[in-house]
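Q: For a teaching session next week I want to show students how multiple molecules come together into a single three-dimensional assembly. I've collected the sequence lines for a complex. Could you give me the predicted structure tokens for the whole thing so I can convert them for display?
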Amino acid sequence: MHIRTYHELTEPDRSGLAAQIGAQRRRVAARLARVERLIAVMSGKGGVGKSYVTAHAARALARAGRRVGVLDADLNGPTAARLLGARDGPLAVREDAIEPAVGADGVRVVSMDQLLADGRPLAFRGPEAESFVWRGAAEAAALREFVADVAWGALDVLLVDLPPGLARFQELAELLPAPPAVLTVTIPTPESGDAVRRALRAALERGATPLGIVENMTGGAFAGTAADDLATEFGIPVLGRIPWHPAPDTWDRLGERL
Amino acid sequence: MKFLCVDCDRQMTFEERQLPGDGTLAVAFKCPGCGRVIALLTNPFETQLVSSLGVVIGGRTVPEQPLEMVRGMVATGKEDAFVEGRERGAASGPVWSREAQERLARVPNFVRGMVKKIYADYARERSIAEVTTAVMDAARAELGLEGM
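A: Of course. Below is the structure for the complete assembly, covering every listed component.
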């Protein structure tokens, strides 16, 4: 028995699932066509202050006259909206997009935090048992919608605040027409350096452009030289060192270097 | 996903989609050569996986709505997360029967605006003047609006 393969069947297919996926990708590309730069803020390590750095870098860029958006891609632990003072109030639904909230210094922001009931975790409708089968796909789709279905408008910079680890970066890179630039955040400790090294290497293997490293929580209890070590290893600059109590111009200096 | 009638060596075509309401999905495909009809049956996990991808088996018949997957699938959304920016197509929209309005009122506010828009678009595209519960049932099955 000869059975033709999937690719040999070329008759018109009403479902057109591949075409639907293609349309999703074109929607992403169309939305990002007016975004000059997309920067993924990442780290392999949790708790190093990615969202904190993202929010303050965004505000610094906005104060310098840039049009800035923040997409909170940490769907399960969203904090960017609170950090930017844009947590409350409904998001307006337009014909083909959601209007982002406008936070401190005019930064546009969309976060799952704006959509979830207070104190409730992100949960999807559907069969709870074996939810690992589909939950990853649902979160990837949510990320796609945050990119494609938000009226970001013309932006000089869209900062994407990623959760710890690699998974969300890989989902983002799959979505985008071209690999993103990455801003890497670490704390000084060697443990953080190890985790960040893996994440940064994975990002580079996906074609990402490394902008540099921000070392957060310096001058306190966390000892180490993670940022300098990574900078040397990857040949990228340390763009900023953020002490426990940043001076007023700390963020502005970081913004100037982005 | 494609289906081949091996006897005819013809690609089968989408016929109909049904949502029994238990999380499963039934999709019928027909061979254009011999007329044989088969049904693809998915379990709740498989149905959910397809929904999570943001695709519709049988193809889309109404445009994708903004944040469609998020609004349709997030179970812990807050009631006042969204506000309709303006009455979209209100001037030419269908009227809603009392029963249809009552059913719509039972939809969580998180997703209600989108659901109302989808049903209204469905009715408008078919020149249906009044959205009734029967129209909602038909749209739900035809468009694959599981849980709406």
